[in-house]
Amino acid sequence: MGGCALPLLPLLLLLLLLPGPAAGAAVPRPPALRALGRLHLPLSPTSRPAVAGNYSVHYFQQKIDHFGFDSDKTFKQRYLIADKYWEEDGGSILFYTGNEGDIVWFCNNTGFMWDVAEELKAMLVFAEHRYYGESLPFGDSSFKSPRHLNFLTSEQALADFAELIRHLKQTIPGAENQPVIALGGSYGGMLAAWLRMKYPHTVVGALAASAPIWQFENLVPCGIFMEIVTTDFKESDPNCSESIRRSWDAINHLAATGSGLQWISEALHLCRPLTSSEDIQNLKDWISETWVNLAMVDYPYESNFLQPLPAWPIKIVCQHLRNPKVSDQQLVQNIFQALNIYYNYSGQAKCLNVSETATSSLGTQGWSYQSCTEMIMPFCTNGIDDMFEPHSWNLQELSNECFQQWGVRPRPSWITTLYGGKNISSHKNIIFSNGELDPWSGGGVTEDISDTLIAIKIPEGAHHLDLRANNPLDPQSVLLARSLEVKHMKQWIREFHASPKTAVLGYF
Question: Catalytic: 438?
C-alpha cells in the first residue's frame, strides 16, 4: 500500500475522542459521557511508516456558511491526493471523509485505501474536516466564541465534501468521468454514510466502518456501549471484569482513610498526587476511559494508535486482574499493573499522567463542541450489566455543562431528524462494517437493511479493523470483510462506467 499508509483506526478516530478541555477550565464529565470522546477515530499499528511525498497537499476555498447568503467569507480546506495507481479508463476515486483530527494523521492510519488503490485503479483523496488540523475557518480565533463555532456541524462538513468533489471533477482532467466512493471510520464512517444519503449524486456508494449512526436518542439502549466493553474483558477472563467492577469500591474505601490519597497516588505511580475527592473522581474517569480505549484497540498484533500496545492487549491486561477476591490494597496494585500495560508498554514512562489518554493528533476542542451540539449520544451504566460505576443518562446535566463550557445547549433530536435515524431503507449502496469487539458496534448497523444497504460483521474485529492495512496476523474474518467490501465497490464502479451519463454542473 504505499503512500502515507500505515496499517489502520479512528478509526475513527475514532473515533475517536473524548470530550476534552475547551477555552478555559475543562468541565468534569461522568465516565459514561467522557467515554464518548475516544470513539471516532482510526487506529493503526506500526508495521510500516508513512512516506512523506507520496501524496500531494492541496487547499480549496470553502464557504464558511454553505446555507446562508449574507456572507461570502471563505477558509482554506486542506486535502491530500495520491494518484499513483489512478487510471482514467475504468478507474475510481476513493474519498476519505475526514473526521475529528489532522487529515495527515488519518491518511497515515487508513491503510485499507492504500492497499486497494491499485486493484481499483483509484485516486485517493483525504479531505480534512473543518475546524480540525489546518482547516480552521477563523484561524487561531476559531474556538474563541460560540459565534465562530456556529459553523462546526456535520451538515457544513458534508457540504464541504460535496463542494470539494465537484471541484475535483471540474479541475482534474479525467476525473469528471470517475465514480467517487466515500470511505470513513467512526465519525468519519458516519459522514461517509450521510454523504451518500444527502448527496447521492456525488458518490456512488460508501463504506462506513464502525459508524454508530444509531447511537442517538433512544434508537439503542444507552447502556449497550459499556456492556460491550465489559463483554470484551469478561470473555478474556470472567474474573477480569469482576476485578474492575470491584476496583471502584476499593478506591473509594482507600480514599476515605487518613492517608488514602497519598497511598493510592504512590500505588498507581501517578505523576501528580491526589489531593481531593474531585481528584478521585477524575482518576476513576481516567481509568474508565482506559478500559474503553483498550476495547477499541484490541487488535491481534502490536499497534501504536492511542498508545504502543501488545497484540490482543486486553488478554495481557487481564493477566493482572485474575483474582477479584483480594484486599483493596492488592486490587489497586493489580489495577496499576494493568494500567501500566496501556500507558507504559514501551517502558518509557516514569509515572502515569491522569490527564493523558490519547494522541495529540485528534482535535479534542472541536469534538468537545460537537458533542455539546449535534452529536448527542446517550450513555449510561448500571454496574450490573457492565463493570462500571452506575451512572444514568442525564441530558439536563450535559446541557448545563455544555452551556458552562461553550455557551450552547444540545439538540438531542437533530441528528435523527436530519439523517433519518433507522428510517434509511430508501437509500442504497452503503456498506456498514462493524467489529464485534468494538463497543461502537452497539450503535451501528449490524444487519442487512436491503440488498444494497449491507452489514458486515467482523467477530474478531475491534474499532474499524477493516480500515487498517493488511497484516500477517489479521484474523480470517477481517480478510473476508475486506474482500466483500472490495467486491461491492467493484460492482459500484462497473455500474457507473456501464451507465449512460449526462453532465450536470460537473457531476455525472
Answer: yes
